[in-house]
Specification:
A hairpin with a 2-residue loop joins strand 6 (about 135-140) and strand 7. The chain has helices spanning about 15-25, 40-50, 65-70, 90, 105-125, 180-185, 225-235; strands spanning about 5-10, 30-35, 55, 75-80, 100, 135-140, 145-150, 155-160, 165-170, 170-175, 190-195, 200, 205-210, 210-215, 220. Helices cover about 30% and strands about 35% of the residues. By secondary structure, it is α/β, with parallel strands linked by helices. The protein has a 5-stranded parallel β-sheet. The chain folds into 2 domains: about 5-130, Response regulator (Rossmann fold, 3-Layer(aba) Sandwich); about 135-235, Beta Barrel (OB fold (Dihydrolipoamide Acetyltransferase, E2P)). It has 7 helices and 15 strands. This is Two component transcriptional regulator, LytTR family. It holds the Pfam family LytTR. GO terms for molecular function: DNA binding; phosphorelay response regulator activity. InterPro entries: CheY-like_superfamily, LytR-like, LytTR_DNA-bd_dom, Sig_transdc_resp-reg_receiver.
Length: about 240
């Protein structure tokens, strides 16, 4: 049997600690090594002791859970625990394993933990070269499912009202984001807006001719206000 995953609870409410601690005690694959009641306390704890899994609340005083994750260079796996569903989409930009809404039922807790265990098992059996670094991908919601896309697979994006179409090397995805929202999530050094309705991956551009760029055999228009920056980025 593998060593249990070392867990840290981070929540400003004592009741949340009580519930999650009780759940952790019932799972052999988990062991609780610490309880923190605000983000700064947790950051200091992580500097002192290695942790495999964080159960992290979002709404906390001084610094919330997502802000705390931004300060960590190499964060452990994270399961978010919160009473606020509005952070769900944003949270997946931080490569969290799961998002649990309070009050948390034990069955739902077990499902989240199982995702961590499966991920750990996969990483132990796959060659490192087959793993996609978290920083080289992002997550979108498609038809109720969360889908991870590698930046290298994304060719271009088309605005579609309050949705966007993402054209990848394998298929097309539609997700409920505006172009501006998606542009903020993609690395600016790899992607560029070429038109009010199109954003492209620089690596996918095969040719620029007049006021068009070519992605394989697909031509996309270049807006007059975007052309100068595009030409400069392609030089």
């Amino acid at each position: 049997m593998r060593n249990p995953l070392r867990c840290l609870l981070i929540d400003d409410e004592a009741a949340a600690h009580y519930v999650l601690q009780h759940y952790i005690e019932q799972v052999d694959r988990l062991t609780l090594v610490g309880n923190c009641y605000h983000a700064l306390e947790a950051i200091n704890f992580l500097h002192r002791q290695p942790i495999d899994l964080l159960f992290l609340d979002i709404n906390m005083p001084q610094m919330n859970g997502l802000q705390m994750l931004e300060t960590l260079t190499h964060p452990p796996r994270v399961i978010l625990t919160t009473a606020h569903s509005e952070f769900a989409l944003e949270s997946y930009n931080y490569n969290v394993v799961d998002y649990l809404l309070k009050p948390i039922e034990f069955a739902r807790f077990l499902k989240a933990v199982d995702k961590v265990v499966v991920t750990q098992s996969d990483e132990e059996t796959q060659p490192l070269s087959l793993l996609t670094p978290a920083g080289a991908s992002f997550v979108i919601k498609v038809d109720g499912d969360w889908v991870r896309l590698a930046y290298s697979d994304l060719l271009y994006v088309q605005s579609w009202g309050n949705y966007v179409k993402l054209f990848t090397t394998n298929q097309i995805y539609v997700t409920a984001l505006t172009m501006t929202e998606l542009e903020q999530r993609l690395p600016a050094e790899q992607f560029i807006r070429i038109h009010k309705s199109y954003l492209v991956a620089l690596h996918s551009i095969k040719r620029l001719s007049g006021n068009e760029v070519f992605i394989s055999e697909t031509s996309l228009p270049i807006g007059s206000t975007y052309r100068r920056e595009l030409v400069e980025r392609l030089r």
